[in-house]
Design goal:
Radius of gyration: 20 Å
Shape: globular
Number of domains: 1
Mean pLDDT: 96
Strand content: 15-25%
Largest sheet: 4 strands, antiparallel
Distance between the termini: 56 Å
CATH class: Alpha Beta
Order of helices and strands: HHEEEEEHHEEEEEEEEEE
Structural class: alpha+beta
Number of helices: 4
CATH architecture: Alpha-Beta Complex
Low-confidence stretches: none
Bound molecules: 2-amino-4-trifluoromethylsulfanyl-butyric acid, cobalt (II) ion
CATH superfamily: Creatinase/methionine aminopeptidase superfamily
CATH topology: Creatine Amidinohydrolase
């Protein structure tokens, strides 16, 4: 097989492509310019037998059961621990992000950090997912598979960490700068972090879930940013994903009422352009349809009697608390 490499001087859009196809550059290789290309995925890594595994770990098959939406205090205690473990692993993984590092190296690091903390990296073999963390670079919205691609200065990368420990999952993600990034990319990351916290602050018992999407979408609109619709927040607990869906845009049909003891994630994916997505042939990697960059943050939250408790937040977390100073009348309850 011959691998053609892109020349250093590129044709104009309407000129013939450099690859010899005879087609116009804009109809041939131009759309790939500056886009993330899939690399090589290394063999599956193993988890020591001493670590408790979720039911899908060996088969890759996820069999759903009817898990109560409202968790007992005892389960909440375990979820708080799983959340804290995931938050710490995410912070450490984010601190390791450097230009030149491959996303496979990030996977190895996250895999080992999970194991050292006696947790199973939840993504591994979840519906056949081949790796222990999702690494989503630039225009990749979510579920990017760690591979041989090296991170480049100016990239942005979302790391989505989920740890299974004590029979429950803790799920959290954040978007990190690779080296120095430009102002537009930084503004996207900042606005996305603001979006998640607007969503978190909309969590209140007695209110419908749609309040969360409304708060997120309003803030994205203010910055003229897109809100991805195809991927949503989810109920979580003993199962990675339960049937509660948390939309990140407003839809009156997202009408389930929040109740104390409910646990779910809020994980807005915000883009510089369209809300629409495309899927790579690997059937995991979701990218923006227009190739614009996209960022995401995720927290796992508990609805309390008075507001919200961020189970993946707190001092050790990447985005552990609200970036806003709030009037006391709208204060939520954080226990950490
Ligand atoms: N952690 C992701 C979420 O927030 C799910 C990843 S599923 C995987 O829901 F299979 F891709 F790992
Ligand atoms: Co996640
Ligand atoms: Co999630």
């Amino acid at each position: 097989m011959t691998i053609l490499t892109q020349p250093s001087i590129l044709p104009s859009a309407n000129d013939v492509c450099w690859c010899g196809s005879g087609r116009k550059y804009k109809r041939c290789h131009k759309p790939l310019e500056g886009r993330v290309q899939p690399g090589k995925v290394s063999p599956r890594r193993s988890v020591p037998a001493s670590i408790a595994r979720p039911p899908y770990a060996d088969t890759g098959e996820v069999v759903r059961w009817n898990e109560p939406a409202i968790k007992s205090p005892e389960i909440i205690t375990r979820m708080r621990h799983a959340g804290a473990v995931a938050a710490e692993v995410l912070r450490l993984a984010g601190e390791a992000v450097k230009p030149g590092m491959t996303t496979d190296e990030i996977d190895i690091y996250v895999h080992d950090l999970c194991i050292e903390r006696n947790s199973y990296p939840s993504p591994l073999n979840y519906m056949g997912y081949p790796k222990s963390v999702c690494t989503s670079v630039n225009e990749v919205i979510c579920h990017g598979i760690p591979d041989s691609r090296k991170l480049e200065e100016g990239d942005i990368v979302n790391l989505d960490v989920t740890c299974y420990i004590g029979g429950v999952h803790g799920d959290t993600n954040a978007t990190f700068a690779v080296g120095k990034i430009d102002a537009q990319n930084q503004a996207l990351i900042d606005a996305t972090e603001e979006c998640i916290w607007h969503g978190i602050e909309a969590v209140k018992p007695g209110r419908p879930l749609s309040d969360i999407g409304r708060a997120i979408e309003d803030h994205a609109n203010l910055h003229k940013l897109g809100v991805v619709r195809a991927f949503v927040g989810h109920g979580i607990g003993e199962q990675f994903h339960t049937d509660i869906q948390v939309l990140h845009y407003y839809d009156s049909r997202n009408s389930v009422v929040m109740r104390p003891g409910m646990t779910f994630t809020i994980e807005p994916m915000i883009t510089l352009g369209t809300w629409q997505h495309k899927m790579w042939d690997d059937e995991w990697t979701a990218v923006t349809a227009d190739g614009t960059r996209t960022a995401q943050f995720e927290h796992m939250v508990l609805v309390t009697e008075t507001g919200v408790d961020v189970l993946t937040g707190g001092p050790g977390a990447v985005s552990g608390k609200s970036p806003f100073t709030k009037p006391s009348s709208t204060k939520s309850s954080f226990t950490r």
